[in-house]
Amino acid sequence: MPGIGLLEQATAIQAASADCRGLGGAAVESDKVGLEAARLLATSPSVMSPFCSFVNRVGLSLRGSFAATQEVPACHLQAAARPGGLFVAVAIAICLTGCGTTKWTDSARSATEQLLTSDAIERAVMQVDATPLAGRKAFLDVSPLDKTNDSSYLQSSLRHQLLACGVGLAESKADAEVVVEARAGAIGTNRDELMVGLPQTNLTVAGFGGMLPEMSLAKRTDQEAVAKLSLFAYDRETGMPVWQSGVQNVASRTHDRWYFGAGPFKTGDVTESPRFAGIRLRMPTFRRQEPAELADAVKLTKPHLYDTLPPLPEDISPVLTAAGDADGTRK
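The chain above was modelled as a monomer; its predicted structure follows.
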C-alpha cells in the first residue's frame, strides 16, 4: 500500500531526528511531528504529494547538515532521502484502470409472452381433427383472422394441421372441392398478481414526502396466453355443410414466485424445468398434461417425412454413382 512506504520514511526521519539530538546537532522537529504526518498521510490521500516532498527536503537537509560529522546513521538518511515510489505506483494504477459498457435492448413484446402465445396456438390447433377431409382438396379461408393477434403464425399452423391430417391445399377456391373457414374467438394474454405483505406506498410526514419500498413475505405473478378457435367446411359448389371442428380453447401459463424477497422462481408450460433468476434448477416438477394425439394426424411439434413425393418419370431412373449417391440419368 502507498501509505506504508511513506510511513517508513516518516519513521526514518524520526530516528534521524533522535540521533541528531543525541549528538547535539541543529534543532529538528519533535517526534510527534513525524507521527502526526504519518497518521495524516494514512488517513488522507490528498496530502501524499506534499508530504513526499517534505520527506525528501528534510532528508536532503539532514544529509547536508550532518554528513560531515559522519555520526548520523547513513541508513536513516538514505531512507529519508529515498525518492518516493508512490508516483510510479499511482501512474501504473491509473494506466490499469478502465471501464466498459454493454448496450441492452428489449423487444416490444417479451420472449415469454411470445412463447406463451405460440404455445397456446399450437396446442389449440393440434386438437383440430380434420381427418374426415383427408384425401380431398380444400381451400383455407383465413379472411376472418386478418385482425387477430399473431395472425400469420395462426394461419400457418392451421395449414400445417390440415396437411398433417391428409388434406390437400388448393391455391384458390376455384381449384378446391371444399372450403374450410377458420375463426378465432381469442388470441391474447392475461396477468394476475398476488402479494402478502406491505406494498410500495407514498408516505408524507410533517410536510416531507417519501416512498416506502415494498416489503413482502411472498409474492406471485401469473401470466397466461389464451387461444380459442374453430373451423368448419362446406362444399364449394353446393355450399352445403361438410364438417366442423368444434371450439378449441387452450391456455398456456407461466408462474413467477418470490419468497422473503428472493426470486423469481419460474415454472410453467413454456419452462422445461424450474428456474431461479434465470438459472435452471435440477429438481422434480409437475409437468403439464399434453393434448391427446389424434390417431390419424401427424403431431405438429415433431419431425415427420410425408409419403407424398411425386414418382420419378418413367424415362428417368436413379443410378448409384461411385460415391454411393443417387443420380438421375435419362435412359
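The radius of gyration is 42 Å.
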